[in-house]
Structure to design on (215 residues):
């Protein structure tokens, strides 16, 4: 079985169980749907070169990053880990210097939403809400990268960062914000290789490299 197939299977099984001067931002009002995991080909959206200035009009929900697929499988899965329904509106994904604003999608407690970040193959977990379009913050280099989940667009404010993971090495663009917010350790990173296909949270909240499993 190839690495790509093992990673896709691992993602599906887990989900069923459970400073650059140019800042790039993308946003969407995407239609969403719930779908079983099936591979589709995605075309990355065109990037713009404006600094995000959106002012959120919704309250921060209790969301966390749970799956980050790497390389050709580039996508991100976010879960509502709170006790009540909450909207992803006003929340942003970041791999500096690129940003993506989620549409107003409501997740019930325990529900997940998956969005492609520009990989060649999009394999959302079974039962996840699939967000149309591409969050052009990737694709993710399996050997080194980061993803941050923010509420609001003040990316230099540690109070806005909700969830964070970096892999391969430390010291990425938003690493210090996560350290200041006490949701990531100084110098910490998830070990990956050039063949890694995904990293998956094994504990929520995942605030330490030991809370993630590479695949």
């Amino acid at each position: 079985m190839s690495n790509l197939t093992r990673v896709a299977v691992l993602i599906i099984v887990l989900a069923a169980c459970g400073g650059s001067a140019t800042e790039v931002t993308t946003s969407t009002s995407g239609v969403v749907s719930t779908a079983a995991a099936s591979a589709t080909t995605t075309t990355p959206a065109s990037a713009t070169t404006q600094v995000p200035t959106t002012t959120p009009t919704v309250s921060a929900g209790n969301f966390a990053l749970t799956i980050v697929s790497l390389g050709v499988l580039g996508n991100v899965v976010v879960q509502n880990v709170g006790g009540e329904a909450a909207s992803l509106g006003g929340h942003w994904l970041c791999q500096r210097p690129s940003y993506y604003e989620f549409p107003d999608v409501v997740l019930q407690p325990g529900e997940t939403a998956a969005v492609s970040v520009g990989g060649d193959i999009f394999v959302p977990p079974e039962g996840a809400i699939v967000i149309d379009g591409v969050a052009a913050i990737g694709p993710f280099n399996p050997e080194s990268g980061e993803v941050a989940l923010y509420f609001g667009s003040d990316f230099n404010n540690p109070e806005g960062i909700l969830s964070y993971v970096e892999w391969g090495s430390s010291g990425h663009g938003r690493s210090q914000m996560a350290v200041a917010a006490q949701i990531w350790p100084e110098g910490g990173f998830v070990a990956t290789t050039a063949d890694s296909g995904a990293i998956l949270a094994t504990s929520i909240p995942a605030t330490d490299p030991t809370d993630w499993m590479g695949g």
About this structure: The CA atoms of residues 90 and 152 lie 6 Å apart.
